[in-house]
Write a structure and sequence with these properties.
Layout lengths: L1 H20 L2 H55 L5 H15 L1 E11 L14 E2 L21 E7 L14 E6 L16 E6 L10 H6 L22 E11 L8 H11 L9 H4 L2 H9 L5 E4 L14 E8 L1 E4 L5 E6 L6 E7 H5 L7 E5 L2
Antiparallel strand pairs: 1-6, 1-7, 2-3, 2-6, 3-4, 4-5, 8-11, 9-10, 11-12
Helix pairs in contact: 1-2, 3-5, 3-7
């Protein structure tokens, strides 16, 4: 509408000029000028529209190209560095290169029968009352209360593995608080390790004598006094089996071990994390084929971070344990470290050989 008004104005001016001059040439010139203006405006609009359409098309194509590139990047990210066949070969090589002697522990709940305590006083167990002799000070926490027996291992019942004792009794005590005595360092304030080279069942205190000095089992935690239930509330009989385990994916040195195994097989290597090296099934197979459990020696497991100090060996590990129904489904908790966590005790090789348990690192974590 605007350009029509402008053209009309040009024509009107021409007519006015004609009226004044009676010059046909002026009128014709005005008409031509008006027509030219209208055509120029239409051409400009057409060119502008074509340019806009071209720009929009380019933007749309660019967006589609960006989406394609992002899709390709996502697909590339989803691809694992190693094929399933290569992953299987690497797992086999890892077993050969990182194999360690390990003693796995099977824990079976038993009745906390104090009437037969004296007969099994020096035996291996989780929970229950400890072997203790008359006249010696019982381990206490900073609050002065007796600690609770977490685990007692008679190494004469344990299959022999290098550097670990062939006999003697290892006892681990913890406090009944919300951290179970753990302060994530080697100071044994609210937890304690007791080592005995020699033990004799005939000098063991009875259950009644232990109760007289304030000692209780994990099943006897008194929540009314502010004590916190232990990871286990039963006594467990222990059975030991010697086996071989290999490095666990939750260990900090797992990716470096994978690299060495891949190099030994002639495979290419890269700096990707373990999660990107394998597809999900292959990665999970490292866990499935290297099950975590209660154990002595071998490789530790963590739900959070690898806390080992340089040169640390796994002295003892207690995992969470669940009961199952007839269909194999979890039906309850038997041992529970927080939210399905795990506890570790680490020691240097020199200290282990010297039977020096004063510098043990106690750690537990959970999901």
């Amino acid at each position: 509408m605007k350009k029509i008004l402008i053209a009309a104005a040009i024509l009107f001016i021409g007519i006015a000029a004609f009226a004044l001059t009676a010059n046909i040439i002026v009128l014709v010139a005005a008409a031509v000028a008006a027509w030219s203006y209208i055509k120029n405006e239409e051409n400009a609009k057409t060119n502008s529209g074509a340019h806009t359409n071209q720009t929009e098309t380019k933007s749309q194509n660019k967006a589609e190209d960006t989406q394609k590139m992002q899709k390709q990047t996502d697909e590339d990210d989803e691809k694992s560095f190693y094929t399933a066949e290569q992953a299987s070969a690497i797992m086999k090589k890892l077993k050969e290169m990182t194999a360690k002697e390990t003693v796995r522990i099977k824990a079976t709940p038993i009745a906390d029968d104090e009437s037969t305590f004296e007969k099994r006083a020096i035996g291996s167990r989780f929970g229950g009352l400890p072997y203790w002799t008359r006249g010696e000070d019982f381990p206490t926490g900073e609050d002065g209360k007796p600690l609770y027996l977490l685990a007692q291992i008679n190494f004469s019942e344990v299959p022999p593995i290098s550097d670990y004792p062939a006999r003697g009794l290892l006892q681990i005590f913890v406090r009944a608080d919300n951290m179970w005595g753990c302060d994530f360092n080697a100071e044994q304030k609210d937890w304690r390790i007791v080592w005995r080279d020699v033990l004799t069942a005939s000098v063991a205190m009875s259950a009644a004598e232990l109760h007289d000095i304030g000692v209780k089992s994990a099943a006897e935690v008194d929540e009314e006094t502010g004590e916190f239930p232990l990871p286990l509330q039963k006594e467990f009989a222990l059975a030991f089996e010697k086996t071989t385990t290999f490095i666990h994916p939750n260990c900090d040195d797992f990716e470096n071990a994978v690299k060495h195994a891949a190099e030994a097989l002639g495979f290419a290597t890269c700096e990707k994390s373990a999660y990107d090296l394998f597809d999900e099934d292959s990665f999970n197979a490292f866990f499935d084929d290297n099950g975590v459990a209660h154990q002595i020696g071998g490789y530790p497991n963590f739900t959070q971070n690898d806390v080992r100090r340089k040169g640390d060996m796994l002295l003892f590990q207690m995992d969470s344990q669940f009961s199952t129904d007839g269909n194999g489904r979890i039906s309850g908790n038997e041992i529970l470290w927080g939210d399905a966590g795990i506890a570790n005790f680490f020691i240097s090789r020199d200290d282990l050989r010297a039977r020096n348990f004063s510098n043990v690192l106690y750690n537990w974590d959970c999901y």
